[in-house]
């Protein structure tokens, strides 16, 4: 029996399994199966595997506590928002208090407000990034081939993250130069630059050791083809 | 050799009505979402279990998927069926989760202790199939996982994968052949 014919019968076997084969296809397949061992083995082996996988999925999903998940899901939006708002409030307040303590009496308000604005902006950007990430997951490439679209999306994200990593590195270098090498800079000026450098460093470390490796692993997994 | 297609699915009109409700007031959106969650939670969980290969991780991903659905529901353009959109989100989330996974909780452990000869055989088949599945490429895994969801027609699967209907069958048989090879090899 030529290879191509058996391959097309394998498709018919699948179509029959999922009730999509026509009566004519089913009759042709029945005749073929009486003479072709290869297709019979394909049919039996794949049906056993299908049964096994279905049994696992049924068992793994039968004892799920949906009410718990539903409750967590219902609370997820509100709880997350509450947590984010508390953290967004605590961060700037802590910074404002530290600056108040560190600064000279005459410059306390300016210092505290300045740095609080910086920290507030960073937290705002972080919240924005979280919302964008969630939206991205829900943004479907509805009319494109799924895997191709997903690969392209990951490649785009890797490019953007790589650029962000280098930009963060450049910003760190500039800020450190400003903080350490400018001779007539005040102490509070140096502190502001060092805090900004620390924030840029956090972005750089996250991209370098967490974000980029995760994206690369996912793309590599998508590109991995069976031998 | 036929497989029952048992899960209920929404028709297009009902889907459109739900999406419309989700675009109105917050309370109506929550109600629409609750209905969507009840309807799609099980197939989405099964899809995640198959793709990720870990049941507890799959539960977390299901939460993430429906959180995204809840947030983005008012923005859903309706370029595709609602179900297609949800399964695509689930597939993306499950693939990302699988790429992060380091340890494996054997899925076959979820099967209850076999008492009859048939159950022993099924457990053995399940174990071998799960091990073989783990060695497949993510594309093969995804196709087999989508077909493992009862109630998802081949047309819907074609829409989820964004390929013509005919291509779905050739991809399924290629994935199945690969799985069979792994079963023989393993």
Describe it for me?
The complex is a heterodimer of chains A (227) and B (186). Chain A is mostly helical and 227 residues long. Chain A has three domains: 3-62; 76-138, no CATH class; 140-227. Chain A has seven helices and no strands. The longest helix of chain A has 37 residues, at 66-102. The two termini of chain A are 25 Å apart. The model of chain A has no long low-confidence stretch (mean pLDDT 83). Chain B has helices spanning 12-22, 26-52, 55-72, 82-100, 117-134, 138-147, 154-161, 165-185. The longest helix of chain B is centred in the N-terminal third of the chain and has 27 residues, at 26-52. Chain B is globular. Residues 1-6 of chain B have low confidence and may be disordered. With 186 residues, chain B is mostly helical. Chain B has two domains: 8-102, RNA polymerase sigma factor, region 2, helix turn helix motif (Rna Polymerase Sigma Factor, Chain: A, Orthogonal Bundle); 116-186, Winged helix-like DNA-binding domain superfamily/Winged helix DNA-binding domain (Arc Repressor Mutant, subunit A, Orthogonal Bundle), CATH 1.10.10. Helix content of chain B is 71%, strand content 0%. At the A-B interface, helix 1, helix 3, helix 4, helix 5 and helix 6 of A face helix 2, helix 3, helix 4, helix 5 and helix 6 of B.
């Amino acid at each position: 029996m030529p290879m191509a014919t058996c391959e097309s019968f394998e498709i018919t076997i699948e179509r029959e399994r999922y009730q999509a084969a026509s009566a004519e296809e089913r009759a042709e397949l029945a005749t073929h199966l009486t003479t072709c061992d290869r297709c019979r083995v394909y049919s039996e082996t794949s049906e056993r595997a299908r049964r096994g996988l279905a049994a696992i999925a049924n068992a793994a999903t039968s004892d799920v506590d949906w009410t718990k998940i539903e409750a967590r899901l219902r609370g997820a939006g509100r709880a997350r928002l509450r947590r984010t708002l508390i953290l967004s409030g605590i961060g700037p307040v802590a910074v404002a208090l530290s600056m108040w303590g560190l600064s000279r009496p005459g410059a306390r308000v300016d210092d505290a407000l300045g740095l609080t604005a910086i920290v507030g902006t960073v937290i705002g950007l972080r919240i924005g990034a979280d919302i964008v990430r969630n939206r991205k997951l829900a943004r479907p490439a509805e009319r494109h081939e799924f895997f191709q679209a997903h690969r392209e999306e990951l490649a785009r994200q890797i490019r953007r993250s790589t650029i962000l990593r280098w930009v963060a590195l450049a910003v760190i270098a500039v800020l450190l130069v400003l903080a350490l090498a400018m001779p007539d800079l005040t102490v509070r000026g140096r502190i502001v630059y060092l805090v900004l450098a620390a924030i840029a460093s956090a972005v750089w470390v996250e991209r370098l050791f967490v974000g980029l490796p995760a994206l690369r692993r996912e793309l590599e997994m998508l590109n991995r083809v069976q031998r | 050799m036929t497989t029952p297609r048992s899960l209920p699915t929404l028709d297009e009109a009902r889907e459109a009505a739900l999406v419309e409700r989700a675009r109105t007031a917050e309370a109506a959106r929550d109600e629409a979402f609750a209905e969507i969650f009840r309807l799609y939670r099980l197939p989405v969980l099964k899809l995640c279990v198959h793709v990720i290969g870990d049941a507890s991780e799959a539960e977390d991903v299901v939460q993430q998927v429906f959180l995204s659905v809840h947030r983005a529901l008012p923005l859903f353009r309706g370029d595709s069926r609602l179900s297609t959109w949800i399964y695509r989100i689930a597939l993306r989330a499950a693939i990302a989760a699988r790429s992060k996974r380091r340890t494996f909780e054997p899925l076959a452990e979820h099967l209850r202790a076999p008492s009859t000869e048939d159950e022993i055989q099924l457990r053995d088949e399940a174990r071998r199939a799960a091990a073989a599945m783990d060695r497949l490429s993510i594309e093969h895994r995804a196709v087999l996982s989508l077909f493992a969801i009862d109630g998802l027609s081949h047309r819907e699967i074609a829409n989820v994968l964004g390929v013509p209907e005919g291509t779905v069958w050739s991809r399924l048989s290629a994935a199945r052949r690969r799985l069979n090879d792994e079963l023989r090899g393993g």
